[in-house]
Every structure is written in C-alpha cells, then in structure tokens.
C-alpha cells in the first residue's frame, strides 16, 4: 500500500500445501518452520490453503482507515489474480489482541487458542467460496481506494544444470 509516495503498509499471502496446512492448524509447527518448499508454486497450480503473514502498517497510520484499505484492497487484488482452489481457507496467527479483533472484524474465526499453538498465539481461519468472499469484501469495503496494491510472485526455484564442457578442439 502506498501513502504519500511512500510504502504505508504491506500484507503477505502465501500458498501452502495440503500437507502443511493440517500441521499448522493442528499446532504441530511454528510459523518460523514454514519454508518455501512447503508453499505450492504460486502460478502453476491452484491451492486451497493460504497463510496471511506480515501485516504491517506505518505507525503514523495507526488509528486511521489505512488497515481497512490494506486488507480490503490487498485481498480484493488477491481474489481476482491468485491461483485459488475454491472453497479456500485463509489462515493467520494473531500476535496481539488488536490483531485478533482485526481478524474477527474481517470474518475470521478462532481456529486454535493460543495455548494450543507452539507460537503461543491464536490461529484464526476464514473459509469461503469465491462468491462468499466477494460478498464479504463488498460488505466490509464498499468503496475501493485509490491506493496501489502490488502482488509479488515468488518464482519456483529450480536447480540449474551444470554447464556442459565441450571436448577440446571446439
């Protein structure tokens, strides 16, 4: 999200595999244990499970509608551009009471209480079909802002073949 020609906030939306999602939701892994290998290729195969992390906002934007703009515009962009299997599940750890309230206001529910999670913070989830999610966005964020939202795609990393050596004389 841009604000006065500066970055005002950011949100990370990460695809996670069907094997990793239950480990996270059952409290068998910490957020720090999530790795790139566990994330499905973003453009090549749709996925049902998504992890929301790194919701950050400039301190001077606290108490303004900026967080609503960040979530509304960011998630609107995501729903229309990402490779999503429907219905999907968004997962997010709430590292503060404010985070819990924000997620609950957006329609997330508490999936696991803090004492059941290895990070010691509650895990929230939102399950929806495409139509339900678009309806939820429209109800909570009726007007799209003029702030820019960018999606960064992490390409699949493949091992490069070793350089071929040519026989002498070529």
Protein described:
With 170 residues, this protein is of the alpha+beta class. It has one domain: Gcn5-related N-acetyltransferase (GNAT) (Aminopeptidase). 25% of the residues lie in helices and 26% in strands. It is built from four helices and seven strands; from the N terminus they run βββαβαβαββα. A five-stranded mixed β-sheet has the order 3-4-5-7-6. It has a two-stranded antiparallel sheet with strand order 1-2. β1 (2-3) and β2 form a beta hairpin. The longest helix has 16 residues, at 66-81. The radius of gyration is 19 Å and the shape is globular.
Concise structural overview:
The protein has helices at residues 20-25, 66-81, 97-106, 130-140; strands at 2-3, 6-7, 9-16, 47-57, 84-94, 109-112, 122-128. By secondary structure, the chain is α+β, with helices and mostly antiparallel strands. The strands form two sheets. A five-stranded mixed beta sheet has the order 3-4-5-7-6.
Which architecture does the CATH hierarchy give at level 2?
3-Layer(aba) Sandwich
Would you tell me which CATH topology applies?
A: Aminopeptidase
Could you report the average pLDDT, rounded to the nearest whole number? 81
Strand order of the largest sheet: 3-4-5-7-6
Count of DSSP-assigned helices: 4
Helical content (DSSP H or I, runs of 4+): 25-40%
* Number of separate strands: 7
SSE string, helices as H and strands as E = EEEHEHEHEEH
How far is it from the N-terminal to the C-terminal residue, by CA?
54 Å
């Amino acid at each position: 999200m841009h604000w006065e020609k500066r970055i005002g906030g950011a949100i990370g939306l990460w695809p996670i595999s069907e094997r990793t999602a239950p480990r996270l939701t059952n409290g068998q892994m910490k957020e720090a244990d999530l790795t790139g290998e566990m994330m499905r290729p973003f453009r090549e195969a749709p996925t049902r499970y998504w992890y929301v992390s790194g919701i950050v906002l400039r301190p001077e934007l606290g108490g303004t509608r900026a967080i609503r703009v960040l979530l509304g515009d960011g998630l609107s962009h995501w729903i229309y551009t990402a490779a999503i299997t429907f219905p999907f599940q968004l997962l997010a750890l709430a590292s503060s009471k404010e985070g819990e309230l924000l997620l609950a206001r957006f329609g997330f529910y508490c999936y696991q209480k803090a004492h059941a999670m290895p990070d010691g913070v509650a895990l929230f989830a939102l399950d929806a079909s495409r139509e339900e999610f678009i309806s939820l966005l429209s109800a909570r964020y009726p007007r799209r802002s003029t702030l820019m939202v960018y999606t960064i795609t992490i390409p699949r990393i493949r091992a490069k073949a070793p350089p071929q050596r040519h026989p002498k004389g070529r």
